[in-house]
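Dear H.,

Thanks for agreeing to be a second pair of eyes. The structure we're designing against is below in token form, covering all 332 positions.
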């Protein structure tokens, strides 16, 4: 029998605390980013990705983890990275609809954001749908070069040192530019850049405690796996219960968000965006279906994958923000 996933819960609690302190969970902040009127999210995102990159390098140096860059996800429609692109677009649509990400829905729920309940319901439904559809829509990557050379710097024929140094420079320039051009931030416990650095710290904690990088959308897939396992068990199936370690991490994220909101006390966030229940449910479904088709979400691809310069993650993130901005513009 597998041991109780205490470390997953602890790691998730650290992540949830940092994400909540950074204030990157507010629907108005996320939708404002898609409208390019609020850059609080981008500042935290860049700081988290840059610091995560250093955390992963340090963890590798200390031999705490041998985590590898993310490889392509395909649905066998038009190319090696079609799952990353289509999944990223669908996830972006979900962000624009719900004002959430697969990770931020937990701080939203913990802090009482009204749209978080239907968004969470939609996300769980998305996990159940993906678990059912997974055998039918996921393809096998046949491009061995994409598997053997999963990073952008490998494709460009340069070294990891040059690639990561360039990435750190670009993140620093992006942070400086957004801070100068858009100095106003959303209400939060800490500055978004500080919050991003805290999230980077939880990346190291995840590597130390679990040996793997941050990522949370797999929790919803696991809930779907558990749902179908229970249904089949009632029908007489004797298959073993699916893993719940990702779900334990998500539960820890919820607990960490709740504790920091109660113990420290968060500034009052006045979220002026009204999101209907139907829109939130649809957004939640899109969030998780998109994230699982792409093989990761804003934390798995955006923070962890980008920080290792995974080509699949870069394509996924371009799809996320491209899809989110396009739909936000359409809805306005």
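And this is the sequence the design step returned. I haven't edited it by hand at all.
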């Amino acid at each position: 029998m597998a041991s109780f996933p205490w470390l997953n819960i602890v790691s998730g609690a650290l992540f949830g605390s940092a994400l909540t302190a950074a204030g990157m969970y507010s629907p108005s902040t996320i939708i404002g980013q898609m409208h390019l009127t609020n850059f609080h999210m981008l500042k935290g995102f860049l700081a988290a990705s840059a610091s995560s990159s250093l955390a992963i390098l340090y963890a590798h140096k200390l031999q705490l983890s041998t985590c590898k860059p993310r490889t392509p996800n395909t649905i066998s429609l038009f190319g090696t990275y079609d799952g990353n692109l289509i999944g990223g677009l669908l996830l972006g649509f979900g962000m624009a609809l719900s004002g959430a990400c697969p990770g931020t829905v937990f701080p939203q729920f913990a802090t009482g954001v009204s749209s978080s309940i239907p968004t969470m319901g939609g996300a769980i439904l998305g996990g159940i749908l993906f678990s059912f559809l997974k055998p039918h829509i996921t393809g096998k990557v046949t491009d061995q070069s994409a598997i053997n050379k999963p990073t952008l710097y490998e494709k460009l024929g340069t070294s990891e040192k040059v690639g990561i140094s360039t990435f750190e420079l670009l993140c620093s320039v992006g942070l400086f530019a957004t801070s100068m051009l858009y100095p106003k931030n959303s209400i939060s416990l800490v500055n978004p850049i500080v919050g991003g650095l805290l999230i980077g710290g939880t990346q190291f904690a995840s590597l130390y405690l679990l040996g793997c990088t941050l990522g949370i959308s797999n929790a919803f897939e696991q809930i779907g796996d558990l749902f179908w396992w229970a249904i089949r068990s009632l029908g007489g199936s004797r298959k073993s219960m699916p893993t719940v370690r990702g779900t334990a991490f998500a539960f820890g994220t919820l607990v960490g968000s709740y504790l920091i909101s109660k113990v420290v006390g968060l500034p009052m966030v006045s979220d002026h965006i009204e999101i209907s229940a139907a829109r939130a449910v649809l957004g939640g479904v899109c969030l998780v279906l998109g994230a699982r088709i792409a093989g990761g979400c804003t934390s798995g691809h955006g923070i962890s994958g980008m920080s290792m310069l995974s080509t699949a993650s870069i394509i996924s993130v371009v799809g996320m923000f491209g899809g989110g901005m396009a739909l936000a513009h359409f809805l306005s």
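Two observations from my side: The mean pLDDT is 94. The first helix runs from residue 6 to 22.

Warmly,
E.
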